[in-house]
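[step 3/7] inverse_fold.run input=structure_tokens len=558
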């Protein structure tokens, strides 16, 4: 029998009206702002009304470094949420929204897979409720206002060579990485070098995901540094008087989106910064609201634990006053074999030795998560080619690391296929053994924070930062930004900055190419190695296979 595609499974979903999903959480119809029949935003007045309730348990789902073999982190997040509900717990999930760039590139969507999906899958992976468009518009409004300010006399004395605010687009387009604007004569302004990042790398995206309410949002937007004057003093977005209009554009985007899983369990889908070039977590307002509405909240952080989980702990939890009660680390037998040196074409054949060799990657992630004082449980996301001996090898390895691993079949069986993991995760979360703490203090110098992550999490020997970068970090400390956490922009495929180095590499340095101050979001970005903040499309982009069929349904999304 042919296996149905994710989009075919999603299309057959027996969705319930979004008002019924809201009722499960105690959200009245008057507090829902519907976008059609199957998705809605939550009103700010309702969010304010539940702020004094006690918090539920927070469960983070993270993963090993991604491989072409596939890991299924979002699928496991959705499956675990369904599994917890299946065993009688009141649980919901919080995940990120999908970016159009990877949807039409090569990564695919962000709604889960198989029978562990969030629906409506097509809308979630396309325009959804328009949040990303609002972020793109607000970001580029500021860009337009900066250039307009310069054109009409430059009252702030902006140095055209030191405009640091780039434009954004929610699409992979390498041609826009470095551009020249305002060509064509006096009427078009002053020519200068500029560029585009992808929307998920925008500081506006980070701010939306870290802000607690609209007032906090506007303050953070105003705090963004957009350029420097000739005397090297910073120019803020509020100096250009852009923060008010930007907040207006983001007013609705600030409110979490409520949808449902295939098993009609509630899910917040809100915000979407990438973890390799941004901080990789869904919004604080969605997570905090969910913790007031459910006894267990399952959320995820992007890519491997060296990126997403590290930033979840050191940035999101630090800034929002959150602490995870349990971490689920997703791995697959296929990925273990790939980390052990097996080619993708040969992953279907049993190779226990390669599994054992590849487990070094998993082991390092387990150690890293434990270093934050949080208990970790491993989810082995099942593939039909997995053999009993291979699964046993992973379980044996994990046991040797002082943790437990559970085989999970949620992709094929939904919540019923992950109840064993769900039961154990609930026990761990309820046990109160978590002693969460970030791995560096606020008052550590910025350069040392970068070195701490590189050495403790990546296991690098050293960090390569030239004197110009160190001087820049010191200057920001002198300006009062020294207590900010750091956000590492690094390849997701390896602990090192070389995407080809799988497993658990050692004997490498981490080169820091550039640092950027996100004063509104509240972190310093360290760009390491060859990482790009505007991705390009692959030789054969997914867009080539996406189309409407004769019935007007979308095909080719995954």
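[step 3/7] decode complete -> sequence:
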């Amino acid at each position: 029998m042919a296996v149905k595609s994710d989009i075919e499974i999603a299309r057959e979903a027996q969705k319930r009206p979004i008002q019924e999903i809201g009722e499960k959480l105690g959200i009245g119809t008057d507090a829902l702002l519907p976008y059609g029949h199957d998705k809605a935003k939550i009103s700010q007045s309702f969010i304010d009304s539940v702020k004094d309730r006690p918090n539920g348990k927070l469960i983070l789902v993270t993963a090993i470094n991604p491989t072409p073999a596939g890991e299924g982190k979002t699928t496991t997040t959705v499956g675990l949420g369904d599994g917890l509900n299946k065993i009688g717990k009141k649980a919901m999930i919080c995940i990120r929204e999908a970016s159009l760039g990877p949807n039409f590139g090569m990564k695919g969507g962000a709604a889960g897979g198989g029978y562990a999906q969030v629906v409506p899958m097509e809308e979630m992976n396309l325009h959804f409720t328009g949040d990303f468009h609002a972020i793109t518009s607000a970001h580029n409004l500021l860009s337009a206002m900066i250039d307009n300010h310069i054109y009409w006399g430059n009252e702030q004395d902006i140095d055209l060579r030191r405009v640091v605010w780039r434009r954004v687009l929610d699409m992979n387009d390498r041609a826009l990485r470095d551009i020249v604007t305002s060509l064509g004569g006096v009427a078009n302004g002053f020519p200068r070098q500029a560029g585009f990042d992808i929307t998920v790398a925008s500081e506006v995206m980070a701010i939306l995901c870290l802000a607690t309410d609209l007032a906090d949002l506007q303050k953070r937007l105003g705090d963004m540094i957009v350029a420097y004057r000739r005397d090297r003093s910073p120019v803020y977005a509020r100096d250009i008087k852009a923060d008010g209009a930007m907040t207006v554009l983001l007013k609705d985007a600030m409110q979490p989106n409520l949808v449902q899983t295939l098993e009609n369990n509630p899910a917040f889908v809100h915000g979407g910064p990438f973890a390799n070039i941004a901080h990789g977590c869904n919004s604080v307002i969605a997570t905090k609201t969910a913790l007031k509405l459910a006894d267990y909240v399952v959320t995820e952080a992007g890519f491997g634990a060296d990126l997403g989980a590290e930033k979840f702990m050191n940035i999101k939890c630090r800034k929002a006053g959150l602490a995870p009660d349990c971490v689920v680390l997703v791995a697959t037998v296929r990925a273990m074999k790939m980390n052990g040196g097996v080619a993708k074409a040969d992953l279907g054949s049993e190779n226990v030795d390669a599994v054992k060799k590849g487990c070094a990657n998993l082991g390092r992630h387990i150690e890293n998560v434990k270093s934050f004082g949080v208990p970790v449980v491993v989810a082995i996301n099942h593939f039909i080619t997995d053999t009993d001996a291979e699964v046993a090898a992973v379980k044996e390895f994990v046991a040797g690391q002082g943790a437990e691993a559970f085989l999970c079949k949620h992709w094929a069986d939904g919540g019923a296929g992950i109840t064993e993991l769900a039961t154990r995760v609930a026990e761990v979360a309820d046990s109160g053994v978590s002693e969460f703490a970030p791995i560096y203090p606020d008052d550590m110098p910025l350069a040392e924070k970068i070195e701490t992550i590189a050495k403790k999490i990546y296991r690098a020997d050293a960090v390569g930062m030239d004197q110009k970068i160190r001087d820049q970090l010191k200057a920001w400390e002198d300006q009062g930004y020294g207590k900010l956490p750091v956000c590492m922009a690094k390849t997701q495929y390896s602990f090192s900055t070389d995407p080809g180095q799988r497993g658990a590499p050692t004997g490498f340095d981490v080169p820091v190419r550039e640092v950027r101050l996100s004063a509104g979001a509240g972190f310093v970005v360290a760009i390491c190695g060859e990482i790009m903040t505007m991705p390009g499309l692959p030789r054969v982009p997914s867009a080539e296979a996406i189309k409407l069929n004769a019935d007007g349904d979308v095909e080719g999304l995954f």
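[step 4/7] annotate
The longest helix spans residues 131-151.
Residues 131-244 form a domain with the Domain 2, N(10)-formyltetrahydrofolate synthetase fold (CATH 3.30.1510.10).
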